[in-house]
Structures are given as structure tokens and as C-alpha cells.
Amino acid sequence: MRARHICAIAGIAAAVGAVVFMQSLVKTNDAQSERVAERLLKEVPVSAEAQVARLAVDFRPDGRVMQGPPLMAAIATEPGVDGVAVTRALFAQRKLEVPPVGTELVFVGRRGTYRLKVSKILGWDRPLRGYPNAFVSPETAKAIAE
């Protein structure tokens, strides 16, 4: 009987400790997220009028087909972009080497495939869910029509 009480007390203490630890992580993440968002908006700005689409990227480093889930691009419109401007974060999600400027990337959408040349590499390295990691001109976005 005594051993059960000791185990119960130890279990409750462990649960309380886990809850306190998780709450401290949430507060830390909330405090850091504002700074991360401010830095991201300075390095990779997105206009309020930008349209966004999600497309898979058929990227085959060294000609090999990648295994696992597809590489996903969140594409936003940005005036003045020739081809596609990509962030390092697009490739960081799968720990891939960033292709050089001039490389042709194949984007796969609901209406087919689109071949766009990399015109610029933006310096943001951290993948951030939902934030654009590739940019095309509004004209290119109309042609893609996703």
C-alpha cells in the first residue's frame, strides 16, 4: 500500500513538472516568434496585395528522384521578379543544396507543370510554415493560374 502512494505521488509530481516545463516553452516561443517575424519581414518582405499558391517542386538533385514527401513551395507574387526568386528555406526543409541562379525548377500544380528559372536566391534560411519561400511576377502567377 505504501509503495502505491509513493508511486502515485511521484507520478503526480512528474505530471506537474511536465506541464510547467511545456508552459515555459510556449512562453519562450511566443517571445521569440515576434523577433523572428520582424527579421523575416526585413529579409523577405511580402506585400499585402500578394497572391499566394502552394505548389510541389519536382527537384532532382544529380538527376536522382527524391524519396519521401514532396518539396513544397509557397509561392507569392512580387512585381519585378524574372523567373522565380527562391529562399534558402525552400531547400532547407529537406536539407538540400540550393541550386545556383539560372537553374530550371519544375513546379507541379493542379493544372500541370511549370518550368521557371531561378533568378535570385534570397537569404532566409529557416523554413517557416505558411510563409512564402518562392516569388514570381504577377504575370507569371496569371500564367500558372493556380
Question: Can you give keywords for this protein?
Answer:
elongated, alpha/beta, 6 strands, Cathepsin D, subunit A, domain 1, 3 helices, 2 domains, six-stranded mixed beta barrel, 146 residues, 37% helix
Architecture overview:
- With about 150 residues, the protein is of the alpha/beta class.
- The protein has two domains: about 1-45; about 45-145, Cathepsin D, subunit A, domain 1 (Beta Barrel), CATH 2.40.70.
- The protein is about 35% helix and about 25% strand.
- It is built from three helices and six strands.
- Strands 1-2-6-3-5-4 form a six-stranded mixed barrel.
- The radius of gyration is 22 Å and the shape is elongated.
- The chain starts with a helix and ends with a helix.
- About 20% of the residues are buried.
Instruction: Give the low-confidence spans.
Output: none
What can be said about the biggest beta sheet? 6 strands, mixed, barrel
Q: Report, as a whole number of angstroms, the end-to-end distance.
A: 66 Å
Determine the strand fraction and express it as a percent band: 25-35%
CATH class of the largest domain: Mainly Beta
Number of helices: 3
Estimate nothing, just give the exact number of structural domains.
Answer: 2
Task: Describe the structure in brief.
Helix content is 37%, strand content 26%. With 146 residues, the chain is α/β, with parallel strands linked by helices.
SSE topology sketch:
Layout: H1 2-43, E1 52-58, E2 71-77, E3 84-87, H2 88-92, E4 104-109, E5 112-122, E6 134-136, H3 138-144
Parallel strand pairs: 2-6, 3-5
Antiparallel strand pairs: 1-2, 1-4, 3-6, 4-5
